[in-house]
Amino acid sequence: MGYLSFAGTILGGLFKKPVTTQYPLKPAVLPEELRGRVLIDIQKCISCGMCMRKCPAGAIVVDRGAKSWTINRFACVQCATCVDNCPVKCLRMEPQYEAPGTVKKAETFVKQVPPQTATATVTLTAVKTTAATGVQPPQAATPAPAAPQPVPPADGDGHA
Amino acid sequence: MGKHTVVPFGPQHPVLPEPIHLDLELDDEKVVRAIPSIGYIHRGLEKLVEKREFKEYVFIAERICGICAFGHGWGYCKSVEGLMNIEIPLRAKYLRTIWHELSRIHSHLLWLGLMADGMGFESLFMHSWRLREQVLDIFEKTTGGRVIFSACKIGGVRRDIEDSELHGIATILKGMRDEVRTITDIFFKEPTSVSRLKDVGILSKEAAIATCAVGPMVRASGIPLDYRVADTSGVYRELNFTPVSTDTCDCYGRCWVRVQEIFASLDMICQAIEKIPAGDIAVPVKGNPNGEYFARLEQPRGEAFYYVKGNNTTHLTRFRVRTPTNMNLPAMVEALKGCDYADVPMIVLTIDPCISCTER
Asked: What does the mean pLDDT of chain A come to?
């Protein structure tokens, strides 16, 4: 037992680098495996709702009709259950924590519906024509007609 | 007969990491009686078992405590697996044991830091937590979380650790050993530390038995009571492990037991890494739990009980935890009798109080 038993540790500390980092001036070093926050590749999502049903915190809402995926990041507990249960693997955990916020709002992702087949065909035809002749065809200057629109009734009302 | 005074201690007090209230009855400076009261952080986690499916509840069970989070998740899974007669793969048992013993190291290093902080030894407090940070980094790399791991599930574990990573962990832990020795020796060599711990808060062997103390509290009173020697849900029987105990019966002994347990856990993890077999990490779980079951697990603070009751639906009807701090409160009251008022913080800290566990 001695009064200077801690002296070696103190003196040794004078010649060692600090074990702390100057956060936030220097970003924290986070491992790849860190469960920081959930990210979604919404274009791959099939709106099956498995993540919503399995989420223990009830933080995810999937709307099949609107093809949207909403997460309340303030309710999410970063357990990665949604990632494990996603059948198309469109969810993943990003090794970065969610930034703090002043309002507890949910984040919504909406799947972009691809253009319909008829439109795509017309556009492709136009591109091919351009490439073959070098002349800009007149229909390429104007946007191709979108999906066939329903003909409005004569009386302007939606009812038959 | 001195002057009789009643002093309120807590629930907000500099040495208390969590809120507990004590009414200390003093005769001059000597404590003659202590009356504890809890109820400041009840969260109703047991009731939530009726609201969540039994597979999802493991995420709530491990939020009972931030320090022994993995242990509570394991204890809950163990009780449900026992109820459903699920035998988990051997690799999962090894992984659970490794993570649980890492939790024990991190819990004891945290406690040593709080102990040093309680006696005003701030440098020692920071060095203890510096060592603990290495364990937290291992958790972060292997489970993805620093405090809440979400690694345990019914039927096994959710994540595997690659063998190369396991050997990396063994190297880190072997490197930690000397550093832990250097820091923890200060508790037993430095006169300022020894004078605060030696012959303070005496809990005799008879009193420890009578008050049903558990964990390092009872092991420091000369009773080598450790559930790990009988635990078959982990792989403790395949590892070279002997319970640590001493018969000094005071705060010094409780500190010594915890420090020795750090070294025992370091050894056990290295042994487990050498012996871990290849194979699956989980088995599929079919059906719903039906009936009653209780399981035991040696947490860093002592033995914990888990009781579950199911009715063949996806929701359990009852979940009950008996935490080690709950069992150590009567022992703490016994140890407080006759002590100096200035020693109360040390005695309260040496039971390693976790009031969040106790109230859930």
From this structure: 74
